[in-house]
Design goal:
Number of helices: 14
CATH topology of the largest domain: Aspartate Aminotransferase, domain 2
Bound molecules: pyridoxal-5'-phosphate
Low-confidence stretches: none
Number of strands: 12
Strand order of the largest sheet: 1-7-6-5-4-2-3
CATH superfamily of the largest domain: Type I PLP-dependent aspartate aminotransferase-like (Major domain)
Radius of gyration: 21 Å
Strand content: 15-25%
CATH class of the largest domain: Alpha Beta
Helix content: 25-40%
Largest sheet: 7 strands, mixed
Order of helices and strands: HHEHEHEHEHEHEEHHHEHEHEEHEH
Number of domains: 2
Mean pLDDT: 97
CATH architecture of the largest domain: 3-Layer(aba) Sandwich
Shape: globular
Length: 377
């Protein structure tokens, strides 16, 4: 299967025509428990939902193939998957992208430090800043690239040069890029994490998370955490994710081309102070993005002239872009990140984040134009 291209893997990796019934669409197994053999064994490999489940297995195989890993472990949310990686690397020093998803930053500050780990929050788009932050007891370099909501890019291959000789695990939150536009393991990362709630799910109707890695010992540690912590995804959520991933390559490409068109439109708009999108040549990390990404995904931020009030008014005037958190769904969303993230937010007060959906680009541009029109005058 590995020799096939992404579109083929998204449909065929991890599943097969059901040998018993000939069903083409994968069966949904709602059972949480599985029959023992007469001698007490489990020759099917399945015993109880928390340990292993057929729909979870299929999902894990599919995402393993898309990310070029050895294996994967699926969770009930991206947050649970992230915590599993922090737990699996053990106590020690962690260096993390300072403008990563705010939930990840809170988790590090509120939970992981409680285990006795120390965290340095660093602008990981600067290799020098990461080099200066690494210590003898550093266990993990956690990158979010593109970051969220400032869309800064960290150079995975260059940072791998720093971590490889020091026995530091290099993990990448690949949620914003999706496995279609960036495969961190191919650039030297050891671990990839997705909030499957976003592009993998793609329809804003399922929560999940998944960790992919090459090293079996690390995968075993993450899998052990899943079984003990219990944050397992439901069979139906795994089934829904598998179904959505079949169309991920198509969706991801349209998200990215719509987002690039929106970014170019906003960049020349009189009401806009600046646009944060790595696909624009004006972005500070554009060259690094082009080196490691095939396209820059569907998320972008922009800063509205006139401060917070002007930004809030523009968001209120939008008709197609729905005012809601999250990203990666078919529908376009707009969000004032500073309000949702609270006082320690890295987001400027006049910043709006867009998750650009799959509507027709002409309609999206017309909506933005009418919403920004009053601001521009
Ligand atoms: N990572 C990123 C980049 C995110 O945007 C999110 C959620 O917004 C998460 C992780 C956490 O995922 P979840 O909401 O599925 O727990």
């Amino acid at each position: 299967m590995d020799k096939h291209k992404t579109e083929t893997l998204a449909i065929h990796a991890g599943r097969q025509v059901d040998p018993e019934t000939g069903a083409v669409s994968p069966p949904l197994y709602l059972s949480t428990t599985f029959e023992r053999d007469a001698d007490g064994g489990y020759s099917t490999g399945y015993e109880y939902i928390r340990d292993r489940h057929p729909n979870r297995d299929m999902l894990e195989r599919t995402v393993t193939a898309l990310e070029y890993g050895t294996g994967a472990v699926a969770f009930s949310s991206g947050t649970a998957a992230t915590l599993a990686v922090f737990h699996a690397v053990g106590r020690g020093h962690i260096v993390a992208t300072h403008d990563a998803y705010h939930g990840t930053l809170h988790q590090l500050k509120e939970l992981v430090t409680g285990w006795g780990s120390e965290i340095s929050f660093v602008a990981t788009s600067s290799i020098d800043a990461v080099a200066a932050a690494l210590r003898d007891d550093t266990r993990l370099l956690w990158l979010e690239t593109p970051s969220n909501p400032l869309l800064r890019i960290s150079d995975i291959a260059a940072l791998r040069e720093l971590t490889a000789s020091r026995n530091i695990v290099l993990a990448v939150d690949n949620t914003v890029a999706s496995p279609i536009h960036q495969q961190p393991l191919n650039h030297g990362a050891d671990v990839v994490m997705h909030s499957s709630t976003k592009y993998l799910g793609g329809h804003s109707d399922v929560a999940g998370g998944i960790v992919v890695a090459r090293d079996q010992a690390l995968l075993d540690a993450v899998g052990h955490y899943l079984v003990r912590a219990g944050a397992v995804p439901s069979a139906f959520d795994c089934w829904l994710l598998q179904r959505s991933i079949a169309t991920l390559p198509l969706r991801a490409r349209l998200h990215a081309s719509n987002a690039l068109a929106v970014a170019r439109f906003l960049e020349q708009h009189a009401a806009v102070e600046a646009v944060d999108y790595p696909g624009l040549s004006s972005h500070p990390d554009h060259a690094t993005a082009m080196k490691q990404m095939s396209a820059c995904g569907g998320v972008l931020s922009f800063r509205v002239n006139g401060g917070k009030e002007a930004a809030m008014q523009a968001a209120a005037r939008l008709r197609l872009f729905i005012r809601a958190t999250s990203l990666g769904g078919v529908e376009s969303l707009v969000e004032h990140r500073a309000s949702i993230e609270g006082p320690d937010s890295h987001a400027p007060q006049n910043l709006l984040r867009l998750s650009v959906g799959l509507e027709h680009i002409d309609d999206l541009l017309a909506d933005l134009d009418q919403a920004l029109h009053a601001t521009a005058r």
